Amino acid sequence: MAAAGAPLPSIAKTPSPVQNQATDREEPRWRPLLGMVCELTVDLPLPGFHVAEFLRLRPGSVIATNWRLTRDVPLRVNGVLVAWGEFESTGKRLSLRLTELA
Predict the structure, then answer these.
(1) Between β-strands 73-77 and 40-42, what pairing exists: parallel, antiparallel or unpaired?
(2) Which one-letter DSSP state was computed for residue 6?
(3) DSSP bridge partners of 41
(4) Is residue 43 predicted with pLDDT exceeding 80?
(5) CATH 2.30.170.40 is held by the domain 39-49+70-102
(6) pLDDT by residue (tens digit) across 45-90?
(7) Which residue of 11, 25, 53, 59 is surrounded by the most CB atoms within 10 Å?
(8) How far apart are alpha carbons 34 and 28 in whole angstroms?
(9) Which helix (H) or strand (E) holds 98?
(10) Could you give the CA distance from residue 64 to residue 57 in angstroms, rounded to a whole number?
């Protein structure tokens, strides 16, 4: 605790990852890695999916889910959870809008 009249210690505010995006990319320590390939996956968990259902899959099969359209899906880079997002349509393509960083 600071004594009466003594200045309080300053607390540096840690910038959020979103605020640091541009500066992180520009930092020299990242330059050697910027061209590296990584695997980006979006997981759509299907609890209760059985091996029998898997074995019946054929081209054109439709897999019904209980996943709600408004529920966020996990986004992973090389298997590590990095964010959550929601699916949306952009023209004739399916897109993922990031809603939260992990």
Answers:
(1) antiparallel
(2) S
(3) 76
(4) yes
(5) no
(6) 888 889 999 999 999 999 888 778 778 999 999 999 999 999 888 8
(7) 53
(8) 10
(9) strand 93-101
(10) 12
The Cα 53–Cα 51 span in angstroms is 5
Q: Could you give the 3-state DSSP secondary structure of residue 26?
A: helix
Q: Residue-wise over 29-50: b if at least 16 C-beta within 10 A, else e?
A: eeeeeeeeeeeeeeeeeeeeee
More confident residue, 93 or 27: 93
What letter represents residue 64's amino acid?
A: A
Q: What angle do CA 41, 44, 47 make, to 5 degrees?
A: 140
Q: Report pLDDT for 25.
A: 61
Specify whether the CB–CB gap between 90 and 67 falls below 8 A: no
76: three-class secondary structure by DSSP: strand
Q: Supply the pLDDT for residue 22.
A: 57
Q: Where are the domains of the chain?
A: 39-49+70-102
